[in-house]
UniProtKB/TrEMBL annotation:
The keyword Cell division does not apply. Residues 1-35 are annotated as: Disordered. Coiled coil: none annotated. GTP binds at G82, S83, Q84, S85, T86, G87, K88, S89. GO terms for cellular component: endoplasmic reticulum membrane. Residues 1-701, 747-795 are cytoplasmic. This is RHD3/Sey1. Residues 1-11 have a biased composition (Basic and acidic residues). One of its GO terms (biological process) is endoplasmic reticulum membrane fusion.
């Protein structure tokens, strides 16, 4: 028996017992080793130290060292209770392959202080080695016995009660004291019967075999029931039995020192009851499980211990609820953080007004993922708390998604209205189109798109709806369509107004220039025909635009008013002062200048022009003659007279209450007519005077001398004399002298003197010429001689 090796028992107070300890589960232990596996033993953690402080490393060990954190409920907890130095640690190491420190045979001092924890090798079992409860140190640490019992019962499914065979039946022995404590705290913890049971697993050590295990078990059971009966039970639990709270199991192990091989053999068998689920005596029955998920064990154990130390009421259900709340919050926050990470990228585009097409499926995906994560980790906790937290989680995610939902709806709405307007714009500009069809098709297209997008972002389990948005969209589309229709209708009115205007301009010019007494009847009848045609076309097109009766009437009213305004403006333009004067003058001139046959008239002095003009004046101002009919043009122009026309203007504008059509009928006011009459009279008089003057001019004659002078001088020379002062003076002087000569009858003497002067001058000139020629050439001198008589006779 060489398994027990020496080690420093004080080491357990500061460090986990990682050294070579008893029952080290290695191959060296031989073929009968309890744990003949190559897996390294798990490290041990001092859960609660000698000063009753709970370690902060449980989670780390659960995760890194023991790998249990993700196990959920797939783990078990076992604690060992018993007197000090009864081989508890040795037993645990044998059963679970742990490496709890064991006592040095020589020193015989307490080894385990506080509570140690480790993981069973090759099994998901948390093993707690609890400080011994009696012995010499008992007095020092008496309250720890109760605290550790409370803690173990709150966390462990199986409590191994370790005792020597010789202790069985010793009612006043330390074991019975321990069990009493266990029962008392159990009642304190589990107020209700049938909640969770704990298995009390009695391991009877150093079983020699003289007393069969059954007898020992019976003795122990009797003792347990006796203790139970003697307990002071809380109110409501007076009649409860020990079996309402505990199950028993018994096992015996041979003397480890005296029968080491037998001990190992039995220990191996015992181990299978903790590790082999198929073993019929498997101890970790589901009914013993404390239902603390592995990832919540650290927090749960810590808060249980905190309650125990501070001596507050330890209400386990509340603790489990609190744990559930704590853990569910943690799980919720972690899952929600992941969820936010997933949906955040959609936030910015949606805020900036873009439609995220893939938002719907992505929203569902991230919500499902978040809930799946939450369910996976939180569903093991207190069900009510879990359900509550799940709802909280769902509501939280929905609240976040709802912002995206609303943003997306807004953007879908915006996109739909934009596309609708754009589509109308494109298709209405194509020339030939059917407004109603275009609008209906565009509306259907954008609506389908909107509904598809909105449907995609609806989330199950919410009361979200897009009905309001849909209604709003319908309204907005109708408004856009109506706006477009109004624009189109206005454009249409404009088109027909233009066609009316073109025809009206021609009509007005024609009728006013050739004004006849029935001017207005003719003009308005013609206008009515043109306008009625345009009106009919307008109504027909408006119907194709889907305009209602009211809108059609409105269009007609507008067209009538605008056409009338065109007509009116054209009339006024034609009858503006100067224009009308021109018209009147033309008419007058036509009358004066052309005769009845239409030939130009030449006034002769014998024509009785005065009486002709007088007649005109007597006919009152602006009287003109058309063929044989005389009528007054200005009064005719002054007022649009529709009384004889087919166009009943009053009826025409009956529906246009705002239009003061009567004001448009007057072209000239009375004073204006007077003014025009005055102006025309003056013009007519001027015309008459001009005509008269032309007759006088015809009568006047040009003097004969002027005609002679012009003939003599020629026209150019005549003008040169007239325009040059020197010539004019010279010519006047000559004229004057001539006139004196003619008046005084001095022509004879003057002629004689003049002849003499001319003869002398001629002779003198000839002499000079002869001299000049003789000096130069004799021959030519001779030739010139016969010329002299001719010249002299000429003179
Ligand atoms: N007789 C006998 N001695 C044993 C047996 N198992 C262990 N021992 C011895 O008992 C002593 C105490 O062993 P531990 O395993 O340290 O006992 P313990 O109950 O854990 O001690 P504490 O933790 O200090 O309370 C050691 O010297 C062991 O060798 C056994 O089955 N029979």
């Amino acid at each position: 028996m060489t398994e027990m090796t020496t080690h420093d028992i004080d080491a357990s107070k500061t460090t986990p017992a990682e050294g070579p300890v008893d029952a080290a589960p290695t191959a060296a232990a031989g073929p009968k080793s309890v744990c003949s596996t190559t897996t390294a033993p798990a490290t041990s953690l001092q859960l609660i130290d000698g000063d009753q402080n709970f370690t902060e490393d449980v989670n780390k060990y659960m995760d890194v060292e023991w790998g249990l954190v993700d196990r959920g409920f797939d783990y078990n907890v076992v604690a060992v209770f018993g007197s000090q130095s009864t081989g508890k640690s040795t037993l645990l190491n044998k059963l679970f392959g742990t490496r709890f420190a064991t006592m040095d045979e020589v020193a015989r001092q307490q080894t385990t202080k506080g509570i140690w924890m480790s993981k069973g090798i090759d099994m998901n079992v948390l093993v707690m080695d609890v400080e011994g409860t009696d012995g010499r140190e008992r007095g020092e640490n008496q309250d720890f016995e109760r605290k550790s019992a409370l803690f173990s019962l709150a966390t462990a499914e199986v409590m191994i009660v370790n005792l020597w065979e010789h202790m069985v039946g010793l009612y006043n022995g330390a074991n019975m004291g321990l069990l009493k404590t266990v029962f008392e705290v159990n009642l304190q913890l589990f107020q209700k019967k049938g909640k969770e049971k704990t298995l009390l697993f009695f391991v009877i050590r150093d079983h020699i075999g003289n007393t069969p295990l059954e007898n020992l078990a019976r003795t122990l059971t009797t003792d347990l029931e006796r203790i139970w009966r003697e307990l002071t039970k809380p109110e409501g639990l007076e009649d409860c039995n020990i079996t309402d709270f505990f199950d028993y199991m018994f096992a015996a192990l041979p003397h480890k020192i005296l029968m080491p091989e037998k001990f190992d053999e039995e220990a191996l068998k015992l181990r299978s009851r903790f590790s082999d689920k198929d073993n019929q005596d498997y101890v970790f029955k589901p009914r013993y499980h404390k239902r603390i998920p592995a990832d919540g064990f650290s927090h749960y154990a810590s808060s249980i211990w905190d309650k125990i130390v501070t001596n507050r009421d330890l209400d386990l259900p509340t603790q489990q609820e609190l744990l559930a709340q704590f853990r569910c919050d943690e799980i919720l926050n972690a899952a929600y953080a992941e969820f936010i990470k997933g949906v955040k990228p959609f936030q910015r585009p949606i805020e900036s007004g873009k439609v995220a097409d893939e938002l719907g499926p992505e929203m569902k995906k991230y919500l499902d993922e978040a809930l799946a994560t939450f369910d996976k980790n939180a569903s093991r906790y207190h069900q009510q708390v879990y359900q509550r937290k799940r709802e909280e989680m769902t509501a939280k995610c929905h609240a976040t998604l709802h912002i995206l939902f609303l943003g997306q709806l807004k953007n879908l709405h915006k996109r739909a209205t934009q596309r609708f307007a754009q589509r109308l714009q494109e298709q209405l500009g194509t020339g030939t189109y059917d407004f109603l069809t275009v609008v209906t098709e565009a509306r259907e297209a954008v609506f389908t798109e909107f509904l598809k997008g909105a449907q995609a972002i609806l989330m199950e389990g919410t009361d979200w709806t897009f009905e309001d948005a849909r209604e709003q969209l319908e309204e907005d589309l109708s408004e856009i369509a109506a706006q477009r229709r109004t624009e189109e209708v206005n454009k249409m009115i404009g088109t027909y107004e233009k066609s009316v205007r073109n025809e009206v301009e021609e009509l007005v010019g024609l009728h006013l220039n050739e004004a006849k007494p029935d001017l207005w009847k003719q003009l308005l009848d013609a206008y009515k025909a043109v306008e009625a045609q345009a009106e009919a076309k307008l109504v027909e097109r408006a119907q194709r635009f889907g305009s209602g009766e009211a809108e059609q009437n409105d269009c007609v009213i507008k067209l009538r008013r605008r056409s009338w305004e065109c007509l009116n403006k054209r009339i006024r333009d034609e009858l503006v002062d100067n224009m009308v004067m021109v018209k009147l003058r033309n008419r007058l001139e036509d009358k004066f200048r052309y005769d009845e046959q239409g030939l130009p008239r030449v006034w002769k002095p014998e024509d009785d022009m005065d009486s002709y003009f007088q007649k005109a004046k007597d006919e009152a101002s602006a009287a003109l003659w058309m063929t044989n009919t005389a009528f007054k043009l200005i009064p005719l122009f002054a007022h649009i007279d529709w009384s004889k026309s087919e166009l009943d203007v009053a009826e025409h504008f009956e529906n246009d209450k705002e239009f003061e059509y009567a004001e448009t009928l007057t072209i000239y006011s009375a004073s204006k007519q007077q003014d025009l009459n005055m102006r025309f009279r003056r013009e007519a008089e001027a015309l008459f005077l001009e005509a008269k003057r032309s007759i006088v001019a015809t009568e006047a004659k040009v003097p004969y001398w002027m005609i002679v002078l012009v003939c003599i001088l020629g026209w150019n020379e005549f003008l040169a004399i007239l325009t040059s002062p020197m010539y004019l003076i010279m010519f006047s002087t000559i004229g004057f002298v001539g006139y004196i000569v003619w008046v005084l009858n001095l022509a004879g003497p003057f002629e004689t003197v003049a002849r003499g002067i001319v003869g002398q001058v001629t002779q003198l000139a000839k002499a000079r010429l002869a001299e000049a020629v003789g000096a130069g050439n004799a021959a030519p001198q001779e030739e010139s001689v016969p010329m002299q008589p001719l010249r002299a006779s000429t003179v």
